[in-house]
Amino acid sequence: MSGTNGRIAVVTGAARGIGAAVARRLGTDGFAVAVLDLDEDACAPVVRDITEGGGRALAVGVDVADEKAVKDAVARVAEELGPPTTLVNNAGILRDNLLFKMSVDEWDSVMDVHLRGSFLMSRAVQRFMTEAKWGRIVSLSSTSALGNRGQANYAAAKAGLQGFTKTLAIELGKFGVTANAVAPGFIETDMTAATAARMGVDFEDLKKAAVTQIPVGRTGTPDDVAHAVSFLVSEEAGFVSGQVLYVAGGPRG
Ligand code: NAI
């Protein structure tokens, strides 16, 4: 029986892509999983997968950038699943543009989902973690934190999440809470498919071009990221905190 059995995890942006893979994996690991995304109905297939596998899961519709909605969502999780002591800040959006064309709305909406969203979720959930004297927070950064053309907003947000993570690790360590970031490289999801569409290139061609820059010679999958998250939220990872784990098929950072 795993040490995390019976613990309650919240995964944001979990209706699809990396978040869905993380939610399923944590379900397999023995967590009860709150599957959060903008549209509650869209979370249903992930919840079904977890419950059909013998686990417990709950779908919750929430915009992570909305303070009141976050408060209500976390209260609902605590009431219906139990007090959450694991949080994966995964919800994310892209609004790519070159700096000279980037609108204030493109800047603000990326900051809102990634930074404000992770702040609001972490602030709402930490209460249960400090009470339990145990907690795990993992936030999704990106190799784009190191700089990426057309992503001034996203790169700033993803680098910001690394500073946020290190600060949470310092503040919450004494309560048995760790905070880490996972920084994926090219992962095959709707997000990267949308990037290809926006660039007007075929997704297969974009993947082929990406692979030439990846030492292990392939693109990543949502399960590659889920595996890294699974390690960081495990009972045994309690001495790993404030770290950025690049999951990119080669060295970064
Ligand atoms: P995706 O676009 O497939 O899924 C993102 C999910 O977040 C969607 O279900 C969406 O509805 C949800 N979401 C968006 N805004 C939200 C909000 N305000 N409140 C609640 N949910 C919201 O994206 P993907 O690829 O699965 O990415 C997941 C995370 O991993 C993101 O933070 C992304 O920036 C990060 N990432 C992805 C990489 C990739 O190559 N796909 C690489 C590095 C990081």
Describe the structure.
By secondary structure, the chain is an alpha/beta fold. The chain folds into 2 domains: 8-185 and 222-247, Rossmann fold (3-Layer(aba) Sandwich), CATH 3.40.50.720; 187-219, no CATH class. The chain is 46% helix and 15% strand. It is built from 8 helices and 7 strands; from the N terminus they run βαβαβαβαβαβαααβ. It has helices spanning 17-29, 44-52, 67-80, 104-132, 152-172, 190-199, 203-211, 222-232; strands at 8-12, 32-37, 57-61, 86-89, 135-140, 177-184, 244-247. Strand 1 (8-12), helix 1 (17-29) and strand 2 (32-37) form a beta-alpha-beta unit. Bound molecules: 1,4-dihydronicotinamide adenine dinucleotide (NAI). The site of 1,4-dihydronicotinamide adenine dinucleotide (NAI) has 28 residues, from helix 1, helix 4 and helix 6.
Features:
single chain, seven-stranded parallel β-sheet, binds 1,4-dihydronicotinamide adenine dinucleotide
Quick recap:
With 253 residues, this protein is an alpha/beta fold. The chain contains eight helices and seven strands; from the N terminus they run βαβαβαβαβαβαααβ. α1 runs parallel beside α2 (44-52), α1 (17-29) packs across α8 (222-232) and α4 packs parallel to α5 (152-172).
